[in-house]
Amino acid sequence: xxxxxxxxxxxxxxxxxxxxxxxxxxxxxxxxxxxxxxxxxxxxxxxxxxxxxxxxxxxxxxxxxxxxxxxxxxxxxxxxxxxxxxxxxxxxxxxxxxxxxxxxxxxxxxxxxxxxxxxxxxxxxxxxxxxxxxxxxxxxxxxxxxxxxxxxxxxxxxxxxxxxxxxxxxxxxxxxxxxxxxxxxxxxxxxxxxxxxxxxxxxxxxxxxxxxxxxxxxxxxxxxxxxxxxxxxxxxxxxxxxxxxxxxxxxxxxxxxxxxxxxxxxxxxxxxxxxxxxxxxxxxxxxxxxxxxxxxxxxxxxxxxxxxxxxxxxxxxxxxxxxxxxxxxxxxxxxxxxxxxxxxxxxxxxxxxxxxxxxxxxxxxxxxxxxxxxxxxxxxxxxxxxxxxxxxxxxxxxxxxxxxxxxxxxxxxxxxxxxxxxxxxxxxxxxxxxxxxxxxxxxxxxxxxxxxxxxxxxxxxxxxxxxxxxxxxxxxxxxxxxxxxxxxxxxxxxxxxxxxxxxxxxxxxxxxxxxxxxxxxxxxxxxxxxxxxxxxxxxxxxxxxxxxxxxxxxxxxxxxxxxxxxxxxxxxxxxxxxxxxxxxxxxxxxxxxxxxxxxxxxxxxxxxxxxxxxxxxxxxxxxxxxxxxxxxxxxxxxxxxxxxxxxxxxxxxxxxxxxxxxxxxxxxxxxxxxxxxxxxxxxxxxxxxxxxxxxxxxxxxxxxxxxxxxxxxxxxxxxxxxxxxxxxxxxx
Length: 732
Fold this sequence. Notes:
Blueprint: H1 9-12, H2 22-31, H3 33-50, E1 58-65, H4 71-75, H5 78-81, H6 97-104, H7 107-118, H8 126-132, E2 133-137, E3 148-155, H9 158-215, H10 221-260, H11 264-274, H12 277-299, H13 305-329, H14 348-425, E4 431-438, H15 453-479, H16 485-492, E5 498-502, H17 528-534, H18 536-552, E6 560-565, H19 572-585, E7 590-594, H20 602-605, H21 614-619, E8 629-630, E9 637-640, H22 649-652, H23 656-668, E10 671-675, H24 684-689, E11 695-700, H25 706-718, E12 723-731
Helix pairs in contact: 3-15, 7-9, 9-14, 10-14, 11-14, 12-13, 18-19
C-alpha cells in the first residue's frame, strides 16, 4: 500500500482540550449574536436596577505626623541622645511605617474605638470599622514620600463617620504617648529579667570549656588530633628505620661471629686485651719464643736442652698471660692461655674484626632499646588519639552551647538598647496635622462622595456582554455537537474532503432513509434519480468529493474504500451511493456493496430486490454473477445488496471467504465502495477496513456529538486503520 493512502497521526488526532480556538470562539459569537445581545441586555438592566437606588456615602479623614520633619530635629530627639555612638546614622533612625500601619489596623487597637462608638451606635462592630477604615502613608514614591499618614473612613451615616474619626484619632494619639511607652517598658523589664540567667549560663559554659582545654592540654581538639597523628606517623617511620637497621646489624654480627668463631663476650674480652700494654708485651714475648722454638726445632731434637729451655720459657709466658687475662677480665678463667681463642684474635685483622663485632653488638643493644622506646611512645600517642573524638565532641557541644548563649545574650542586649531608644522616642507623641473632618460643601454641610454613573453603566454593559457570551458558549459546548464544517476542521485538524447538503422534502419521499424524514432533496415527481440530478449543488459536491479522492491519492489510486460514520443517520449510505454514481459517470467500472448486514439501505434507495446478496456469497458457495446486480442508471455501476439477514452475520465479514471476495472484487472492478455500519456500533467496519485502501467517515453537522467522533477516530487510530478523510453532511 502506498504511503499516500495513509493518513498521518498529526492530521487525525484532536487538539488538546485546554487550547483556546479563537476562530471557533468568534464563529460562536457571530452565530449567536442575537441570544448574546438579549442576555447582555437583561443582565445589564438587572445590574443597573440593583445599583440605581444606592445610598449616599460620606467620607472624612485626619492626618498624623509620626516623626520630626528635619534630620536636625531627629538628631535632637531623646532616641538619638541615648545612643552610645558618637556618629549617628540618620537612615538607621527611619520609622517602619508598614509595621505601624499594620498595628493601627489590628483588632486589638481598634477594639477600644468600637467600644466607644457603640455607646451611641450599638450595632457598630469591628468588622465594619476594619472594612471601611483606610490608612495610607502620604506620598507614592521615595521622592515625594512624607512622614505623615492619612486615616480615612466612609459610611452612609455622616454623624457615625465623624464619631469614628474622632475616637480613632484619640486612640492613636493615646497609643503614641502612653500605650507604646507601657508596652516598651514591659519589654525592657522582661529582657533585664532574662539577662542574669544568660550571663550565668555563659560563665558556666566558658568555665567548662576552659577546664576541658586545661585537662587535655589543648586549644583546639582538631589541631591537637592532627598533630598527634602526624607525630605517630613520624614515630612509625622512625621505628621502621630502626628495625631495618637492627636487622642489618644482626646479620653483620652473625657473619663476624662465624668468621672469628667467638662469641660477642669473647670478642669484648679480646678487645680489652688488645688495649692492655702489659698483656701485649707478654704476648709479643710469647710470639717471639714461639718463633724461636719453630726455628730451633729444625736444627735440634725436641728433647735437646735448648728446645727444653725454650719450652719452659714459653710455659712461663703462658702462665703470665693467663694471670694478665684474669686481671684484665676480672674472672677466674680456667682456660689455658695457650689454648684460649683470645690469642688468635691478637693479630691486627682479627683484632679489628673483634672490635667491629663489639661495636655491632653495642649498636644492636642500643637499637633494641630505641625500638622499645618508640613502641612505648607510639602506644601512648595512640591512646591520646583515641581520646580525641570524645574530647572533640564535648568541645564542640560546649562551643555550640556557648555560641547560642552568646548570640541570645547579644540579641537581648541589642533589643534592650533598641527598646530603650524607642522608649525615649515615645516621650515625643505623634502630632495631629489635620483634625478629623468630613467632606463638606461650600455651605459647610457634609457632602457625599461623588459617583460616576457612566462608569457604572459601562461596567454593567461589560458585565452583561461577558455574561451573554459566557452563557452562550457554555450552552454550545454542553451540546457537544458540530455547528459548521469549520468546527469539524478545527476539531479534527485535517481538511475536509467534501461537504454534502440536503434540502427538506416531504416525509413521504423515502429516498434517503438513513437521514431524518424531514431532510432530503427538493421534491420532484420524477423520483430519486431526477431529484439528485436536479440539484446542481448536490451534484457539484460529489464531483468535488470524487476529484479530491482522485487527485489526493494517486500513487497508487484508490481501488476500494469504506463509507461509514460514528453513529447512524449521518448520510453514509447516501454518500456511498452518490459517490459510486459519480465515479461511474467518469467511466470507471464501479461496484457498490451494501455491507451493512443488519440495517441494509441501498436496495431500497435503488429499488432492487434483496433476496440474495453479500450474505449468500459468504455463507454459500455461489458465483458472484448470481448476486451482483446492474444499476438501471449507469451501465458500468454494479450493486451487491446485503441479502437476507442470517443469525451469524457478525462473523461473516471477518471470515477468510470475505478476504477472498475482496481480492476478486478488486481484480474485477476499478473501484469498490462498501457501505458499512457505524464504526462505534459494529466491528464489521474495522474488519473490512484492514483489507481496503481506507475509510471515508461522514459527520453530520448540528447532530453528531463531538465526543463520539473523537471516540471513532481513536478507534481507527488504535486499530491502525487508514482514514482517507471526513465528509460533513448537513440538512437545510
